[in-house]
Amino acid sequence: MVGVGRNYEDHAKEMGSELPASPMLFLMPNTSVAYPGEPITMPAFTEEVSYEVELAVVIGRIAKEVPEERVPEVIFGYTVANDVTARDAQRTDGQWARAKGFDNSVPLGPWIETELDPSDLRISGRLNGATVQDGTTADMVFDVPFLISYISQAMTLLPGDVILTGTPAGVGLLTEGDTFEGEIEGIGTLRNMFRR
Q: How many domains, in total, are found in the chain?
């Protein structure tokens, strides 16, 4: 999985960060994937675990140096992701592999939608039923075609690879017993419970 950091201006502001001049990329191992409804165990090394609802792009064909206008040809579909983050580790480590790549840190689902225009979809997150994130994919700094083209200039994307496209403002901390629901228009709702 390839993550894109600070891809919504309002989220960058709430984190006290500047917008990147080019996409800020990080990698997550396949062991970080979790299923819809799977309880997520927050790791012992962190005291600050937060949620981030994101549009996830699933690659369907080998993609290398893909021009933006041909990006739809390499996309299999779209799903909902929760880019669960250990904020304290993110601040101290200097890079984000541990903070965003721990086991079961990226729930995906509830399914892959293959017929969807990702340019202006409502994206929202609910913590224990209360809406905490509410935005639109139209607010991305770098849109899906640009991101896939940009990433494919550096690394070959393979079928089944997943690109996380960033989160709108409203991120916050999770505690024992919390339930987080990420919902994206045209796809559905991803729901997971969190435990220590």
A: 1
Q: Which residues in the chain show pLDDT less than 50?
A: none
What is residue 19's predicted lDDT score, i.e. its pLDDT? 81
CATH code assigned at 19: 3.90.850.10
Structural domain boundaries enclosing 74: 2-195
Q: What is the pTM of this model?
A: 0.96
DSSP state of 100: H
As a whole number of Å, the end-to-end CA separation of the chain is: 25
pLDDT in tens, 136-166: 999 999 999 999 999 999 999 999 999 999 9
> Cα–Cα distance between 94 and 82 in angstroms, integer?
22
Q: How far apart are CA 103 and CA 33, in angstroms?
A: 7
CA pair distance 149, 170, nearest whole angstrom? 28
The alpha carbon of 88 is separated from its chain's Cα centroid by a whole number of angstroms, namely 18
**Which of these, 75, 149, 83, lies nearest to 112 by C-alpha position?**
75
Output the CA angle 42-27-183, nearest 5 degrees. Answer: 60
Q: What is the pLDDT of residue 10?
A: 86
Judging by beta carbons within 10 Å of its beta carbon (0-12, 13-18, 19+), is residue 140 exposed, middle or buried? buried
Residue with the two structure tokens 């993609």: 63
pLDDT at 59: 98
Tell me the DSSP string of 123-141: EEEEETTEEEEEEEGGGBS
